[in-house]
Amino acid sequence: MPRLAKLAIVLLAGGLWFGFNAREAMQARLPAERDGQDVAARIEVIGLPESGERQTRFQARVVDSGVLAAGAKLRLSWYAPMPVLQPGDRIDATLRLRRPRGFMNPGGFDAERQALVDRIAAVGYVRTGQVLEGQGSGAIDRLRARIAARIDARVHDPVIAALLRALAIGDVRGLRDDHWDTLRASGTGHLVAISGLHVGLVAAFGAWWFTLVYRMFPRLGLRWPRPQAMAVGALITASAYAALAGLGVPVLRTLLMIAVALLATLLRRSIRGVDALLLAALVVFAIDPLSLLGAGFWLSFVGVAFLVWAMTGSEASFGGLWRAQIAMSVGLLPIGAWWFAQTSIVGFVANLVAVPWITFVIVPVLLLAMGVDAISGWSGLFVLPAKLLAPLWWALSEAARSPLAEWHFAQFGGWALVLALIGAAWALLPRGVPMRWAGLVLMLPLLWPARMPLREGEFELTVFDVGQGLSVLVRTRDHSLLYDTGARWSEDRDVGDAVVVPSLHALGVRELDRLMISHLDDDHAGGRDSVLQAFPDAAQSVGNDADPAPRCEAGQQWTWDGVDFTVLHPPQHFPDLDNDNSCVLRIGSSNGSALLPGDIGALIEQRLVREQRSAIDVDVVVAAHHGSKHSSSAEFVTATSAETVVFARGWRNRFGHPAPEIAARWQESGAAVADTAAQGAIRVTFSTHGPVLDAERDRSTVFWREHGSDQPASATR
Predict the structure, then answer these.
(1) Residue 511, Cβ density class (10 Å: 0-12 exposed, 13-18 middle, ≥19 buried)
(2) Is residue 480 classed as helix, strand or coil in its secondary structure?
(3) Which residues make Cβ contacts (< 8 Å) with residue 653, sequence separation at least 6?
(4) CA-CA distance, 311 to 313, in Å (whole number)?
(5) Over 276-291, what HEC string results?
(6) Cis previous bond, 106, omega within 30
(7) Could you give the CA distance from residue 293 to residue 289 in angstroms, rounded to a whole number?
(8) How many whole angstroms from its chain centre is CA 456?
(9) Phi/psi at 285 (5° precision)
(10) Mean pLDDT across 214-228
(11) Beta strands in 255-325 (DSSP E)
């Protein structure tokens, strides 16, 4: 059979296998008609629960339910007062569940795709529950929890303890967003997950142990050749450690490559590294084809592929380490830019220090401490890897604080990714190949944004999908203004860091000229600190007089690139009245106009109708107060004569925004209704063709994407 025909058969079989698994995973999700409802189920805790003062987050497996199939995975929270959960605990619970759904923004994290990769059938929280006596499965996770507790008991610095838990057992529960920011900026995020190198070290220890046994009892070689025994020892120890580490893609890849090497040894045959890598990728795909949709699969296999490509014939020396680091940095840059829209500039130097220090010093000592603790019950040795890790973490933190530590990529097309991968492979060809530098030229399209630049008089309004809150970006040809920053979720997590800043980078915003906070309610100002950390030079204005930043006041106006900005409210000396303090901003040019009214109520709307009727006559309005029934009065809606109204609100929000009568009022006025909860980020481009609307979720055709609205049919147009 011709080779091309064989390849076609393999691709067809792979596509069918992927499609079958994707269909099964989608059908396992919570039925759409039960979305947002209570479900009675017996569940079993899987993985390691993450406990906090106010809630415990955990994953669970359905044991019995009349709605979900047995074995379906859930991602849940249990709010205070909640019991202390252990892996394997079984719970009779009443759960409030919903189908997996995430924000949809330019360059944003795709929570729905990740839910599919993780095969999450529903997310939600425990309304009532009783932990049953006895435990189900989960012996390995209980062992992981015990090791994590032993580390915490000996290492008093919570950050170092969290890093050691990640290195030891793949437990990243204690790493906050700012810790991940440090790891990303320093290019060392791959080190805190258990990598293939760590599994390789354990495998080498297993092989060494069998070698020691053969030296003690040399006659064993007459019954079983030593190389085969070493291979079996390596596989046994690596398998045990891989199970303890949670069997992530890098771990599974290394384990499978070791298994391939073992098979070759048992069969007395040699195998090339590239063949072992391809076979491992095929097995990972066969076991879990949906892993193809996750970043881990591509970072793991493409990274090692570039390493094999660049290191063929290289010797194990400092020069080899240098070339290996170049190969990983250059080879993974396009993949990292595609998945995370950033790369670390200091990462090359940071990894030259961190990789050998963690791999050959900290991890061996940490594994030794785990072994001593398992055998003798003495956990004091965990202090040693903590002391070895502390100065490295300090150095990485200092490097990450540099404003030049990382580079953020604007969104680019798939063609740029393909060219960059070809260019990386070209640049990593062996010495002596002419024009290797030309490969780097093929990587330049990564710097070309996918969006056309704006011209004089044009502007773009992007209402981000931030849940129940507001954040709007206004861009002209050379300037950018951010109106509000979304909410704060907890002490260390907010919409600014998780959603707004990545979206600004994805849209190519390098400098933010102005940050306008309409008023100080959390759902509008909660992400302010994170935005200012990313864009410290942004000029600020706030609707509340109590804030130290300058106040926005009626009459303030400026022009950027042929686009006029005018503040309509609050007037000078206006008292602090919470929502009614909101900055009302009008943006307009010869190509159209838009109005951002914040959270003003009907009283302020009436004032604007009386005093500035012509100013509020615009093409696009972001509905005041997310579509509350206390705003969007009939007179105001009529006075705007808007062609489009945008509701910025959360999916199934507890306030019922937008109120059905408000949505109907806008529709009856002739306005088309756009909704961030249903459509994701809403982008309106004001060009010579007039306002053109584009919604992030609407233009996404992938099969895992949730579409539709949680509002009655009459609420949308």
Answers:
(1) exposed
(2) strand
(3) 467, 468, 626, 677
(4) 6
(5) HHHHHHHHHHHHCHHH
(6) no
(7) 8
(8) 35
(9) -65, -40
(10) 75
(11) none
CA atoms of 669 and 424, how far apart (whole Å): 55
Q: Which pair of tokens denotes residue 132?
A: 């049953």
Q: Which amino acid does the sequence have at 616? A: I
Q: Which residues contact 347 (CB under 8 A, 6 or more apart)?
A: 186, 187, 188, 329
Q: Are 292 and 324 in contact (CB under 8 A)?
A: no
Is 146:373 a contact under the CB 8 Å cutoff?
no
* Cα–Cα distance, 539 to 65 (Å, whole number): 54
pLDDT for residue 612 is more than 70: yes
Secondary structure of 336-374 in the HEC alphabet?
HHHHHCEEECCHHHHHHHHHHHHHHHHHHHHHHHHHHHH
pLDDT per position as a tens digit, 531-572: 999 999 999 999 998 899 999 999 999 999 999 999 999 999
Q: What's the number of CA atoms in the CB half-sphere (13 Å) around residue 499? A: 32
| C-alpha torsion sign, points 627, 632, 633, 638 | negative
Chain Cα centroid distance, residue 618? 36
Residue 159 · residue 392 · CB < 8 Å:
no
Both tokens of 388, joined, read 């070895």
Number of Cβ atoms within 10 Å of the Cβ of 314: 16
How far apart are the C-alpha atoms of 393 and 389, rounded to whole Å? 6
The CA-atom distances, in angstroms, between 582 and each of 597, 624, 628 are: 7, 10, 15
Residue 315's contacts (CB-CB under 8 Å, 6 or more residues apart) are: none
Q: Residue 67: pLDDT above 90? A: yes
Range of lowest pLDDT (490-499, 502-511, 634-643): 490-499
Eight-state DSSP code of residue 444: G
Q: How many CB atoms lie within 10 A of CB 549?
A: 15
CA-to-CA dists, residue 275 to 201, 204, 263, 297, 642, angstroms: 21, 21, 13, 17, 62
Measured CA to CA, the distance from residue 644 to residue 709 in angstroms comes to: 17
144 touches 45 (CB < 8 A): no
High-pLDDT (> 90) share of the chain, %: 60
Residue given tokens 């220890």 in the structure block: 205
End-to-end CA distance of the chain: 56
Mapped onto helix, strand or coil, the DSSP state of residue 700 is: coil
The least confident of 10-19, 240-249, 309-318, 620-629 is 309-318
DSSP conformational letter for 293: G
Domains and CATH numbers, the chain: 7-137 (2.40.50), 294-345+410-448 (no CATH), 459-715 (3.60.15.10)
How confident is the model at residue 77, as a pLDDT?
A: 96
Q: How far apart are CA 677 and CA 400, in angstroms?
A: 35
